[in-house]
Amino acid sequence: VPASAATKISNGVACNKAGATTKVGLNTYKCAKNAFVKNAKLTWLSTDCVNTTNTYLQAKANLPKIKLATDSTVAKLDTEIVKQVAQVEKAKKVIPEYQAKITTINTALTALKADTANLVKNKATIDKYSAAVRSYEAAIKAYSTVGKQGERSAKAKAQAVAQYENSKTDIESTLGMAQLICSKGF
């Protein structure tokens, strides 16, 4: 048979032995069934086609696991966000109360410090009041960060959802690429 009559190997050309490989120029082909053809028969498929198809199939198989993990993460974050919203509401009530107490204690401290004649006698009370002011200020500072924690949780939730959506988009892109690379004659 003249060389010009030999079958040119490309995607979709029939072959007989599953798993067989051949090299045509710089391309390698494998004898396999095309996953994108219904009732496919053995045909030559480029190794790029086979590899991209396998990547697509693995990613598609992992998508439900990714969805479960995302749903679990979102549920945990939703629970945290609810707690943090409650903490923010509590902070809105508590911070003004603590600020009022600081004002009251500072007024008493000013009076105690102004009483220079009894300064030694009032030292223990002054120290206790000063410690109380520092404690209230620390509590106010802690309550002030609650809103930031809620923002971080909301961002983490948005990222988790976006990652899942990106996974879906990547799978669709891989499918499109695989279908293109695996097309007959390519």
Question: Explain this structure to me?
Answer:
The chain has 186 residues and is mainly α. The chain is 70% helix and 9% strand. It has three helices and three strands. Strands 1-2-3 form a three-stranded antiparallel sheet. Helix 1 runs antiparallel to helix 2 and helix 1 packs antiparallel against helix 3. It is rod-shaped, with a radius of gyration of 35 Å. The N terminus is likely disordered.
Largest sheet: 3 strands, antiparallel
- Outline: rod-shaped
Order of helices and strands: EEEHHH
What structural class is derived from the secondary structure elements?
mainly alpha
Strand elements, count = 3
**How much is the average pLDDT?**
91
- Portion in helices: 55-70%
Measured between the Cα atoms of the first and last residue, the distance is 25 Å
Rounded to an integer, what's the Rg over CA atoms?
35 Å
Side by side, the strands of the main sheet go: 1-2-3
Q: Which stretches are low in confidence, meaning pLDDT under 50 for 5 or more residues running? A: 1-5
